[in-house]
Amino acid sequence: MFSFVEIQCQIAAEAGMIIQRVVLNSRPGKNGVPVAENFRLEQSTIADTIQAGQVRVRTLYLSVDPYMRCRMNEDTGSDYLLPWQLSEVADGGGIGVVEESKHDNLAKGDFVTSFNWPWQTVAILDGSLLQKLVPQLVNGRLSYFLGAAGITGLTALLGVREKGHVAVGANQTMVVSGAAGACGSLAGQISRLEGCSRVVGIAGTDEKCSILVQEMGFDAAINYKKGNVAEQLRELCPGGVDVYFDNVGGDISDTVISQMNQNSHIILCGQISQYNKDVPYPPPLPPDTEKIRKERNITRERFLVLNYMDKQEASVLQLCQWIQEGKLKVRETMVEGLANIGAAFQSMMNGGNIGKQIVSVSK
Asked: GO cellular component annotations, sorted alphabetically (predicted)?
């Protein structure tokens, strides 16, 4: 005699391949703080066979990023991001290995990536929407293609180049908020490589500040949870701030902007302090801060890396070269197991990561 569960599993197996996936279980609400329980791990099935042009891939790594908070709402407030639907599989940046292919340009064993990788252990995907990866470009560290050699690295590099107005010999000082995060840790290093003479980071723990200075070449770092940030910033940037790579928004950004020089530049990359609030993106500055910005002719423009994808190939090669040469130090916070992706997202939103937050799904 078979139990009901055994019979159900047998029926599912006959219907296709059994997989695990993570779906959106609940919405935190526009002003709510996301928790791991907003996501749910469940068993599902995919077809046993693939069609022409498709590949079956096994997921290796998934990326969790601050922008995903917007996708947890019914309305993302963005014209380029679609919301996740309740009880539907979530998706984002991912890397996997091809296990079966009916696509002309992809073969079994190839490593591939996509911006819209489903959060599941195995998937059937359209091969034309996947990008083939060359592990040797990142010294075999495949997960780097989700961070330093992926969209995060592109955001840091092109943000500095397109909006920072950094020039060799200009004696510029850059401040980076969220400096120990995925993008900030790269942006500070890249600004130095591109010509900034002084780089100061702002982070939330002494450990993060130590890593920024000792490992990543920042000149100094401020723990914003200790002491007076404005006073520390004046001491560390006596000539004022010329470029500000803004990952957080809020009070920290108001403090930095108050010490920016005439004709300086804000690279508006992210506003993680505002993502749990029902405000437009980018949120408007407080009146006093906006007055300073206008009086000093400080540029503050939203930077969206997707608008610069014509520069993707050359920029990725530059990032990979710096990684190979040891000029770009990479930090990752790796969490094991698809079941823990919700907890990884919650931790990242609370600042628990150093560098890129990655979930390792399989080996």
From this structure: cytoplasm
